[in-house]
Amino acid sequence: MSEELSINDTEQFDIVTCYQKFLKDSPDMSMPIAAIESLVELIKHSKATTLSEFMESLKDASQKLKSSVRNSISLSAGADLFLRFVTRTSHDVTNFEACKVHLINSGKVLVEKATAVRHKIAEIGVQFIKDDATILIHSYSRVVMLLLQQAAARKKRFKVYVTESRPTSLGVQSTKILRKAGIPATVILDTAVGYIIDKVDAVFVGAEGVVENGGLINAIGTYQVAVVAKAANKPLYAVIESYKFVRLFPLNQYDLPTHTPDLLTFPDLESPRYLSNNDESEDDDVENFEASNPTVDYTPPDYITLLCTDLGVQ
User: Fold this and answer.
1) How far apart, in whole angstroms, are the C-alpha atoms of residue 188 and residue 111?
2) How far apart are CA 135 and CA 15, in angstroms?
3) Residues facing 159 on adjacent strands
4) Residues near 173 by Cβ (< 8 Å), separated by ≥ 6?
5) 3 state DSSP class of 182
6) Pairing mode, if any, of strands 202-205 and 236-239?
């Protein structure tokens, strides 16, 4: 558990500031765990005098957290998990203050187990990396990094292609981490996946969330990688913590909670802005295209060879 935030009880507790501080102070902390930590801090600072008031404050704080980020999939998984636990616990309340203490302690245990969960996934998933294999990974995933490092520690020999993963370019970060661990890795353009797929033996991806039908929500481009892998008959393994299972059932990309009507819209070329032949306005639109593009996509379960979680292989 991170060191308790220095927030004066007499001051207004801000859940978003608390959440951002956890992520800043612990770069390896996942968004779901940071959400749980923040809700635990809220309980510590809660002035609620009744159970109903207490529950309402937790729900409001959870919603405020989700609204504070553009992509709340991963954050929601942690917040919703903790709220379900709080709801179950509250049914057996006989002493309100004792209940708060119990929730705080349980939150600490859950957070402490998070690191062990990742190591367990790596232990389970390392069997799917064969000697002399060529691996393709997309973007950046702490669990995938740990898995590959575990395989290298066991003296397995393999090479890794890493998609650049625009617009965040987190693939560059992944490549640096792998090379530092002595693992041969090279960055490829997102558009080069089809070009190199015949050289690849297996694809590994993380996920921001696993939905109810077994599909994945992950960094934009994951679905594209999965489609290419399936067409080339290459296995795609998704490695993910079980606390990232989310209660969503998307049927397509546009069912995601991150989808908004302004994503990938076409400009109205009949508007005065374009009819004025203002080249500067047109250039701004084109150069700022990232803002109108999605950050995550949905990969249906048909494209996933297996899910590797701390609960086992599915």
Assistant:
1) 35
2) 40
3) 134
4) 140
5) coil
6) parallel
